[in-house]
Amino acid sequence: MEEKTDKENPIDTELVESLSLRKGYVRRPRLSWYYAPSFLLLWLALFYAIVIPLYYRLPDRLTISEESHRPGEFVAERAQQYLYTYDRIGPKVTGSYANEVTTVEFLVNETEKIRAEMRSDLYDLELDVQSPTGGYVFNDMVNMYQGIHNVIVKLSSKSSQSESYLLLNSHFDSKPGSPGSGDDGTMVVVMMEVLRQMSISEIPFEHPIVFLFNGAEENPLQASHGFITQHKWAEKCKAFINLEVGGSGGRDLLFQSGPNNPWLMKYYRQHAKHPFATTMAEEIFQSGVLPSDSDFRIFRDYGNIAGLDIAQIENGYVYHTAFDTYENVPGRSIQNSGNNVLALVRAYSNASELYNTESDDSHAVFFDFLGLFFVYYTETTGIVVNCVIGVLSLVLVGCSVWRMCHQSEEASLPQISIWFLSILGLHVVGFLLCICLPLLMAVLFDAGDRSLTYFTSNWLVFGLYVCPAIIGLVLPLTLYYTLLPNEKLSQAYQLQLSLHAHLVVQALLALILTAMGLRSQYLCLISMIFYGGALLINLVSTLHDRGYYWVPIVMFLQVLPFSYFCYLFYMFLVIFIPVLGRNGYSTNPDLIVGLLCGVCVFFALGFAAQLINMFRWPKLILLGLGVMTFIFCMIAVSDVGFPYRAKTNVMRANCLHTRRIFYEHDGSVSRSDSGYYFNYQDRRAFAPLEDSALDLTGLEPVANRCDDYVMCGIPCFYYSWCKWRQWDGWLPRESEVILPGELTLDFLGYTVLESGTVARYEFELAGPPHMNLFIQPVGSAKVDDWSFVRKMLDEPEEFQPPYQIFHSYGTDNTSLKFFIDMEKPDGIFDTPTLELAAVGHWVSFEYERDAEAKDFVAAFPDFVHVMEWPSIFKRYIF
């Protein structure tokens, strides 16, 4: 039979196209590849147009001259005046005159000025300077304090009979060498201005407010423990707000709440002027990833009260350095914090819930959305919502697959289901690559001694970690679509299946995280709601079946979740990148940044990135991202990638100029030397100093002596120093370190107790305001008891020798008398039984450094901030 031509059999092409659209198998061409850069740049533009402005948005500073026109509002200018005076005091190390006397006098004097201005007809103001002594177990050490100081103010309404107090806390001490104007001077002056505003308010409040200015937080967390366990007002405190600073300036992040008591979050949602919070920050902080802690822990664990932990988080580069000064604290940041704290204090001091704060055993899920509004719901509600939205998401995917089958004549439901499962499996592979490729980059840079290249040039993370994450997320399905083309299902449908796969992964991830008890699953919930909404609109409007017409709806509804996820993970990068400069030598910091970038890409671009396959030659687009990664790698290994800059992005080094004396069992000295003990603060250790004028000849690892002496024979300061001591360094010095004082450990003798196998060794320790004891049993001996807190001995599974005792004092320098009971099965105590080291630290700059030490420290390059002081290490065997 002769074949008929088109001319002989005319067809209504318009009708065919209409039917084809309805049947879903029209082969619409992909968009040209050169549109892809514009597509990718669109998301980058959204980041800079939406995320960055909202993230850095701060209120205008209120001046003293404006106060009469805006009564009852926080006045940042007055707080800055307080801060200027505080800053000029200088470093405020616990035990120093500046901290224990000058700063205490400053706080007392300012409080008295407020008393003079107060509405005495409405309020009572009580002032108390506490000097507590005590101790507790903090992480891996016994943390003891003696005669430290708290300045405590109680403000109450004359008309109120409430016995439930609200506690507001900040600390006025600082790290050695740092004025502490950010950490935590900013919050000290915020509290002072809040105290003033509350004392002149025309409207009385219901519950008394206790303002705790604590003088030993950096020690760590001693003064808050002294207050909450010993002060007369402590037992009446029913809720608290802890105010911290993790840098200098920026917005104040609510990063811990509770425990339980979701009403605290309800009030925060209703009253915070500038909400900034996330459950994810709480879970990360409480996991111990960050090398920090706060007084929140003390109030929660020892006071058994619930509260909020709030901190400014910007510019962590100056945190605990000499550059944490008044000049680096923006007035608008003080205004932001003041607005929030004043509003919250007014709300909580009138909260009826403060009368009955019994825990309801429910956590809260909370987050701010781009700083525009605050979302809060209970954990139980979150579980229900996650399950409902997860099931609805799966139902919508099922409806879409059924619709594709109904619209396509060439593909059956089982076939489409199998294709979808294949795409789902490949998307899971893409998810793993999205996480693993940035981690691989982190491993490679660390192997080449190039970690922290982004420390100053933060924009490098885009090419080093974000681009590889995008490549990993999209690559498996790109290869699938190009190498195994499906002629039975339109490209538009296949592309929808890849987005559906991401929705299913989000639903499954939400269920897994919910089962694990992690409240950060709300991220999955946001993803599911916005894509599920887009899918529902497309199904109802039939755009689902009209080629790529469904894409604009998806993209439009992805703008908000994209903005939120970028906002959230940008915040974490702002926090973590400076922190990684003081996270120690033992871990690869790039792994954390790579992981954050990978997770960010998964959530922010999980749907949008798959649209790369909408363009022709998607492999070429991914190749372009690969080329960009290569270019950024070349930049990172150049001088641009050098991590440190003088004054703004400094390298940190802890250097103790140390004298060591090792006494044997017979009292003879087996070793006496001097040198510099280095506690490395970041992954690069001292490698960046190799080409400097600093003479490091003879530098050796501390680990070389760990088998010979207790605590490796070095004067590690806190538990964190001692925990990672094997990574530290020791540089011998020929001349003896000249110490500014004496450390004495007097052995008062031992007495064999009735059992015959236990002997009590008694000692007396005297020296500088910061001292350590390191206790190591010898041979078969073990510590049976001691005069310190017993917890470490009662939990041998968690605490093992050598034991660390940290002791500090304020103005009370009374010597420390203590005993250690040693048990030996044979009952013979005239042979070596106990190895004991006494360590003294002259931390404050009120103590003179010797000339050689000064010259050595001065030789460090200008991009290094050195925290240094003289110390002595005396080892004894009894």
UniProtKB/TrEMBL annotation:
Q: Does the keyword Calcium apply?
A: no
Task: Please provide the Gene Ontology terms (biological process) for this protein.
Answer: proteolysis
Query: GO terms for molecular function, please?
Result: metal ion binding; metalloexopeptidase activity
Q: Supply the CDD domains for this chain.
A: M28_Fxna_like
Q: Which cofactor does it need?
A: Zn(2+)
Q: Which InterPro entries match?
A: ERMP1-like_C, ERMP1_1-A_TM, Fxna-like_M28_dom, M28_fam, Peptidase_M28
* Residue ranges crossing the lipid bilayer per the database entry: 33-56, 383-404, 416-447, 459-483, 495-515, 522-543, 549-579, 591-615, 621-642
Q: Where would I find the Endoplasmic reticulum metallopeptidase 1-like C-terminal domain in this sequence?
A: 648-876
**Which keywords fit this entry according to its UniProt record?**
Endoplasmic reticulum, Glycoprotein, Hydrolase, Membrane, Metal-binding, Metalloprotease, Protease, Transmembrane, Transmembrane helix, Zinc
Q: What are the Endoplasmic reticulum metallopeptidase 1/1-A TM domain coordinates in residue numbering? A: 422-632
- Peptidase M28 domain: which residues? 150-345
Cellular compartment(s): Endoplasmic reticulum membrane
Membrane topology is: Multi-pass membrane protein
What are the GO cellular component annotations? endoplasmic reticulum membrane
Tell me which SUPFAM superfamilies the record gives. Answer: Zn-dependent exopeptidases (SSF53187)
Entry's family note: Belongs to the peptidase M28 family.
State what protein this is by name: FXNA-like protease
Species source reads Drosophila melanogaster (Fruit fly)
